[in-house]
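Lecture notes, structural biology module. Today: joint structure prediction for complexes of two components.
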Amino acid sequence: MAESTQMFKPHFTEEARGLAYYLGKMNGYAALKKALAMTPEAIIDEMKKSNMRGRGGAGFPTGVKWGFIPKQSPKPKYLVCNADESEPGTFKDRDIMRYTPHLLIEGMLIGGHAIGAATGYIYIRGEYVREAKLLNEAIDEAYAKGYLGKNILGTGFNFDLTVHRGAGAYICGEETALLNSLEGKRGEPRVKPPFPAQSGAFAGPTIVNNVETLAAVPMIINNGGEWFAKLGRLEKSGGTRLISVSGHVKKPGVYELDAGSVTIRELIYNVCGGILGDKKLKAVIPGGSSAPVLSADEIDVIYDIEPLMKIGSMMGSAALMVVSEDYCVVRLLKRITKFYAHESCGQCTPCREGCKWMEDILHRLEDGHGREQDLALLLDIADNINGKTLCALGDAAAGPVSSFVKKFRADFEAHIRGGKCPNA
Amino acid sequence: MPKCIIDGREVEFTPGQNLIDVAKSAGIEIPFFCYHPGLSVVAQCRMCAVEIEKFPKLQTACSTPATEGMVVKTQSDKVKQNQKSVMEFLLINHPLDCPVCDKSGECDLQDQSYGYGSAYMRTSEERRTYVDLDMGPVIQKNMNRCIHCTRCIRFGDEVAGIREMVAIQRGNNTEITTIDGKQLQTEYAGNYADICPTGSLTLKDFRFKKRAWFLKKTPTICEGCSRGCSLELQHEANVIYRCIARENKEVNKHWICDEGRFNYHYVQESDRITEPAVKQGTALQMSAWKQAVLSAREAVAGKKVAVLVGSDLTQEEAAMVQQFAKSKLASAPVFHFGTPGVESAKDDDAADSLLKRKSKTANLHGMEKLGIAPFTAMPSGVHAAIVFRGGRAQLPTLAVSTRIGVGVFKRSESLEFEAVLPGTAFAEKDGTIVNFMGMEQRLKRAIAAPRECKSLSEILMMWTNL
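The predicted structure, tokenised, for the full assembly:
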């Protein structure tokens, strides 16, 4: 396991926050100067070369996404940063906003120049009260120094940036629901097409990117797309990844590792110090709670987008949740399902009705009132939701149910036959 | 025209048409709940999902425009499985109180359960319930039956121009209700019931009156204003129970106003004069037809007469009256009346931003076509007036000593009349009316005239020949 490049992690300290540190120690706003001298096409090209794949969860190539923005548009264009970070288990964006807010601001400025947007929004989850305040302080600093506002660095480029706080709905992390919420509407996903790049915020062409994605942009511009691409050990996935590790490990926290440089086993046992109390590993949720679960014998997979997809799970927001043998997986699945049922927006039928139905069944099951046919029914409901909903929340709820029931069937059956949790 | 392939058949389409409409034009039904041709597309119910070649996932037909060469399957196993699953999802919380639901028999949810659902229920969990607030005089709400299609929200917002229905709460607890639980404000509230695909929003006026499957349906035209919206009168055993909108792209699209929807009530009100009546002393008394006609004729004999026709009469009736006045009443002058302040087509503007017109009678424009002048004041020297009315035209002040009414009158408004010869209302006759756009539309007889009421031609025949 070779050393990973540390772009973010060393700066996750209280001292790093101000503009002085950013300018002095992090070569701050140099990338902006460089980018403003480049054409938008050249920036998008550099992003394509970098193999940056969206860090919010879907892993879509960022350069390609920026390329979707129409050159001519009668409506203003917008760059929106998705700082809703609400996938359970994910807390990496929080550190970026808390310690290196100027990285995000500079990334958004470069992104704004690349797509031709003069307005940016940071949509931040309502619970991040402190981070919203810190971001606003950093934005004020940037305005004061002329990095934001009109005629930035004397180049004629204008860019305004506003922090918009969400009101506490998971669904507002879905980009079109986020845009609705930003516009003051009910946070419900929109029908796609049209995609935000054609018609997004206030019906203007809009790009929505994750915090980590945008915060990496200055480093891509400074060092070149190829440098960034080479950080990744696998093809088509560049850069480092901020990984949020939680659950039953000795050293939980945010880690920065070159993309594809470790297996999950190495991550748990070498990087995070192994399982709490040296217990046996029961399960790993590799990419935020919506990612299909992995059993203990599946963890020799390389922790990156493609390898996880190949074994039927996903990297998601790179939030690894580790579960030791002591914890009841039925209870865990019930809790996850309850979350998605609670966060379903209620627009489309399969998600509104199906998620709650699964929760009800799991609730019964955990209490020892399950029936033999419940497991088949759960799998069937998950199947009927998966891929058939308006947005990805349905899939997010269905994936855990299918994978838990299939991989830990014995635990579920023990609850049904024993009439109670065997661990209780 | 471009073509796509649906279930192996080549189907022509107009660019922009969605797959539901394209399939429908070829006689292929794609089931749906939330889609409505008059409202925006939200793709929420997921019932209309179809398989399209080159798309890995099912696509909702409502939100997918047909494209040249698109290959669509509406009957594949994947599609059928999805329909079955959507039906199951929609029914796990639906009360299934069809036996006591007014929507039963004309309910999309019921029909599609029959067509696409399963006979077996796999849920044993408790059903979701809500407490309903009063929504005002027009709509009865039952949120437990709601399937969250949001048609009502979109109707208010996009058509009626008032955002009064909203979704509150979230997920499984989502409730469709009015803002702050207020009563409905729109004057088009009845449409909420028309477009609701379940019994969640029903008409209070129709509540528990009749099972839908007993109703006979007559397509006709609204006589409520000069727009002439397309209606359907629904009746059984000569009683009208309900009136709903009929689609007419040029006139009213899919909608009607509440005034037009409930206008039919006067036809079967107890105050309507349905027997020939003659003034005896100070009050109108029921009489036989022969005696009433003779009394009426006698009352105007030797007097200078003016003829007033309501602009709620049909073209045929008005022309008949014109001819009658000319040949049998010594060319008495003929005037039309209907809405105070709206004397001619020039005065007849839009009364709101949706459908309503200022003229509160249906045939003002037809009257002008026949060359009938508006009634402003009684010409000097006239001592008797014969008033012909369909039922809706508002009676002007009649400054004469002798008044005869022919047509539909209430007892309360005929106290000053010498005689009333009861005629037919719009639901009881065929005829032509001309709307404000100059379109000639046909009234169709839905029910027989009550008791002794006779058609205008019969009454004039008696007047002439007795």
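Point to remember: The first strand of chain B starts at residue 3 and ends at 6.
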